[in-house]
Amino acid sequence: WCTADIGWVTGHTYIAYGPTAVGATQIVFEGIPTYPNAGRFWETVAKHKVNIFYTAPTAIRSLIKAADVDPKVHPKNYDLLSLRLLGTVGEPINPEAWVWYYKNVGNEKCPIVDTFWQTETGGHMITPLPGVTPMVPGSCTLPLPGIMTAIVDEAGQDVPNGQGGILVVKRPWPSMIRTIWNNPERFKTSYFPEELGGKYYLAGDGAIRNKDTGYFTITGRIDDVLNVSGHRMGTMEIESALVANPLVAEAAVVGKPDETTGESICAFVVLKQARPTGDEAKRLALELRNWVAKEIGPIAKPKEIRFGDNLPKTRSGKIMRRLLRLLAKGEAITQDISTLENPAILEQLGQQA
């Protein structure tokens, strides 16, 4: 069962033609994971004896929050023993969510395939092979055979393991994007930029490899790299620090222009408790700033923290960060929001500017 929206590559690959091509029996699901209650995913798995479950980290984090608020919808209350393989897709998964997923949904018996790929790659690129690759929470581990991924600096030079950089693919592969319709020049400049030598496929993500294992960890989109007073930080790093706080269910971090530091950090936070207001919100914001300073360093403290009942997401559970960037800057949202699950949250988060 793939829970993705069928309009995204994961949805049409793992709902439309993938299962059909191999003659698999599958669940096709319309709706959101929290309606009519947040046990809907687990109820569906139990009812239909799902073997393989593939979902997004954001959906997992929202269900962690729901289970903390209402223990009746915790996965331990459902028969999930039919599951043999779990997957995560769409964005990096923070280690805390990975561990919860592994323990509470997979009963510590199901491998988790943390899959890195894109619409443009046409298939999985970096992922553990279930039962073969030793797993590490938060890491998509190693590329599939024949996929030559690497991490380079802004000049296209390889960086050593343990040092973050830009994720690229050095050699072609069968299912790769071939062009952009009626715009081959944009295809070249977007995916094979001259700054990297013109021959490396630019994934658009930052990554780091473990010094010892060589495992890849995706640190977020390179346009999600913040530059605060000359210090470069990935938004994923700050989000993971926030979510590691026992009060926090979900967090999304974006940058906004700042006259003093060039860019400042704006965090949108969903707590495991009711959304705070007034003095309580100020107190909790200060507490979370200090927490991030302790976890990463003072330079990573968010200048602004906005609390929401939830975050703007697609129906498949992916956070729409482009909307958060506009909210952080105080700009009007004029883009299409037809795939947004919860449009009302934009007003709530925008009012706190």
Automatic annotation (TrEMBL):
Keyword vocabulary terms for this entry: Acetylation, ATP-binding, Ligase, Nucleotide-binding
GO terms under biological process: acetyl-CoA biosynthetic process
Molecular function via GO: acetate-CoA ligase activity; ATP binding
Domain AMP-binding enzyme C-terminal stretches: 237-318
Enzyme Commission designation: 6.2.1.1
Superkingdom, natural source: Bacteria
GO CC terms in record: cytosol
Record-linked SUPFAM superfamilies: Acetyl-CoA synthetase-like (SSF56801)
Domain AMP-dependent synthetase/ligase, chain residue ranges per copy: 1-173
Pfam families attached to this UniProt entry: AMP-binding (PF00501), AMP-binding_C (PF13193)
PANTHER family given in the database record: ACETYL-COENZYME A SYNTHETASE, ACETYL-COENZYME A SYNTHETASE 1
Protein name: acetate--CoA ligase
